Amino acid sequence: MSTLPTADAARLVSRTLALPEGVVDDLLAVISAEAPAREVCSWVRRGDGLVGWGTAAEFTGHGPSRFEDAAAWWRAMCAGAVIRNEVGGPGTGPVTFGSMTYAARSPQASHLRVPAVVVGRRAGRAWVTTTTVGEALPPTEVVTEAASPGAPGEIAFADGPRTAAEWEIAVAEAVTRINHGDLDKVVLARALVARAESDLEPRWLLRRLAERYDNTWVFAVAGLVGATPEMLVRLDRGLASSRVLAGTIRRTGDDVHDLALAASLARSSKDLEEHEYAVRSVADALGRHCGSMNVPESPFVLHLPNVMHLATDVAGAVDDGSTSLDLAASLHPSAAVCGTPTALADDLIAELEGLDRGRYAGPVGWMDASGDGEWGIALRCGQLADDDPRAITLFAGCGIVAGSAPDDEVAESDAKFLPMRDALTATA
Ligand SMILES: C=C(O[C@@H]1C=C(C(=O)O)C=C[C@H]1O)C(=O)O
């Protein structure tokens, strides 16, 4: 069902040039104002990362083989490529952004997208890559600040397939199944639909998200826009690392009280148990590709403006030639977004959630021709509607374990909607 290129079509031609200091102070500001919403690509954290626009090549895939098909497509595109790269290092040369569906059963497509123009920044160095499919090197792009995006105006929010009250009942049912011994943990998600007065611009949302959530990766791929705090896997010249999050507490706005809450989160047996399942699932999957691993014994508390999470950074030295997308495929779905055991949790999600997650909770990120890249989990995000430029569906989910209280989980999901809700309703 996937669109694989023919050998002829696979000839990527790409040129990467260094940009002088001062040209790119703000990656998000250089994204072309003319780019249609679905063409805007972003992966930016604290000013570093990659943005892109335009289309050199595109892959869409479905079903259980979507990761394999995407990996084969990128290998074919890179095998025939002509690459002029005067910068070097991860994220230079031709780059594909990607966003994969959470579930193999989703009717929605998984995407790889090679922008015509990519601008990157890392440790004070900036570059521009132009890519095309054909014979001749593409012309270079003049990188400048684009016109500011417009605010979306008044926003109306409506329930997704389930109201909060209906979702609470689904959570209660999940707790019953867990107490009955059917499984240990399941992650259930809910959706909200937002409709704006004016067309929604990813550039507006990205900017607002980056301003407030500097501990996250601010992403956009094929209309999926968000700010994720969770790094599924980064591969940088053989070193793989992953930031596992699970176990959450809402912030109150009172810093002293929040510190006390952070201390209680680090001691909460319910949250530590939920966290341990997620770390195990990532460490086991990554361990299959790595000669040596570093798995810290206890988590730290990651502070975000809306919530705090238990977090563990896992690392390993990859010894089997896997690319970052191969690693993302074997890590997905982790217990942070699915549950434990995986197959039972996945079945319960299908039974109770009443939602097509689409690409929410799937891997989102980028990869270069060497296979290095970064894939986060698409959380704290929204999917722009295909048929309505003013509509976006927002998603939030919570890990449910034996000690979970359904009303607390509703409040936690509300807190997880906040980054996108605030970005939509910000006035400037
Ligand atoms: C599923 C989401 O978040 C995940 C669930 C968490 C939890 O239940 O504690 C914490 C971080 C994420 O791994 C989401 O934000 O939608």
Automatic annotation (TrEMBL):
Organism whose genome encodes this protein:
Nostocoides jenkinsii Ben 74
The record ties this protein, via SUPFAM superfamilies, to:
ADC synthase (SSF56322)
Say yes or no: keyword Isomerase present.
Answer: yes
Pfam families linked to this entry: Chorismate_bind
Q: What family does the Swiss-Prot or TrEMBL record give for this protein?
A: Belongs to the isochorismate synthase family.
Give the EC number(s) listed in the UniProt record. 5.4.4.2
Keyword vocabulary terms for this entry: Isomerase
Q: What is the lineage of its organism?
A: Bacteria, Bacillati, Actinomycetota, Actinomycetes, Micrococcales
Q: Which GO terms describe its molecular function?
A: isochorismate synthase activity
Listed name of the protein: isochorismate synthase
User: Which chemical reaction does it catalyze?
Assistant: chorismate = isochorismate
Show the InterPro entries listed in the entry. ADC_synthase (IPR005801), Chorismate_C (IPR015890), IsoChor_synthase (IPR004561)
Q: Which domain of life is it from?
A: Bacteria
